[in-house]
Amino acid sequence: MGLTFIAIKPDGVHRGLVGEIIARFEKRGLKLCALKVVVPEKAIAEKHYEEHAGKPFYPGLVDYLCSGPIVAMVWSGKDVVAVTRKMIGATKPAQSEPGTIRGDLALDMGRNVIHGSDSDDSAQREIKLWFKEEEVCSKYVKADRMWVYEVT
Ligand code: GDP
Ligand code: MG
After folding, report:
1. 9: Cβ below 6 Å to ligand 1?
2. CATH level 2 (architecture), domain 2-135
């Protein structure tokens, strides 16, 4: 099973959306492997978003991520990157479908509540950036596994 890195951004924490967002991933059947509340250091936020370095919104994006606590998580499951990106919805909330996290909970691209890795490679990179190896519990077998998956 693959892993992905998900972060509830500071707006999601301040708006009290943590439980709602985690509940969506749990109900989908995904497995929680790591979770921590952290105020990001600027260097880590810059590294996290390095693909956007040089773009006009990059400094504001880094400041936004560092402006308060985030909830950093690792989730596991079948096709987890594609599944969670779909659940998160489009980057621009006006284009996020209702039913997605951004489509239900966000209005502004600069305050779009949540981050999710966009490929297996970025997931590996981001998990390494935010978590120590021993903080990620990906080996346990979730009790509902035989009811979530046809072949376990
Ligand atoms: P994501 O993978 O859907 O989060 O989107 P991107 O990787 O393209 O961008 C990273 C984050 O930068 C987004 O989630 C937004 O918070 C922010 N962002 C992207 N494009 C813009 C923009 O044009 N303006 C502003 N203010 N923020 C942006
Ligand atoms: Mg992205």
Report:
1. no
2. 2-Layer Sandwich (3.30)
